[in-house]
Automatic annotation (TrEMBL):
Transmembrane segments: none annotated. This is SAM dependent carboxyl methyltransferase. GO terms for molecular function: metal ion binding; methyltransferase activity. Keywords: Magnesium, Metal-binding, Methyltransferase, Transferase. It comes from Corchorus olitorius.
Length: 119
């Protein structure tokens, strides 16, 4: 699209690691400051809601934006971020992982934590 310089794209690195449900439980329990009140896999919740691919694209886009928008503003400047996230759902349209149960099995979790009272 020519909106940013190629060297700026090449210098951007955002390493991500997606822990599975078992790892998240271990981290929370190992921390000791919280107890897990409820944990639910959201992909099962969405499939029972009859969520469409469009809804899932919006859901993924808004979640990705919430996580990376600040970093992207800092690196690329705020002018490009709106355009990036307007085109992001179109990119997702070409990805098969949204409907891949094996890929999504441990990705989306809802976890309700309760802060433990210090003794």
């Amino acid at each position: 699209m020519g909106l940013i310089k190629q060297e700026n794209v090449n210098s951007f690195n955002l390493p991500l690691y997606f822990a599975n449900a078992k790892e998240v439980v271990g981290i929370v329990e190992g921390n000791g400051y919280f107890s897990i009140e409820k944990i639910q896999e959201l992909n099962k919740y969405f499939s029972t809601m009859g969520t469409t691919t469009i809804d899932m694209q919006s859901f993924i886009t808004s979640n990705v934006r919430a996580v990376v928008e600040g970093v992207m503003n800092e690196h690329f400047g705020h002018k490009i971020v709106d355009e990036l996230f307007r085109s992001f759902p179109k990119k997702l349209d070409n990805c098969n992982f949204i409907s891949d149960d094996e890929f999504c099995k441990d990705v989306d979790l809802f976890i309700l934590l309760k802060r433990k009272v210090p003794s």
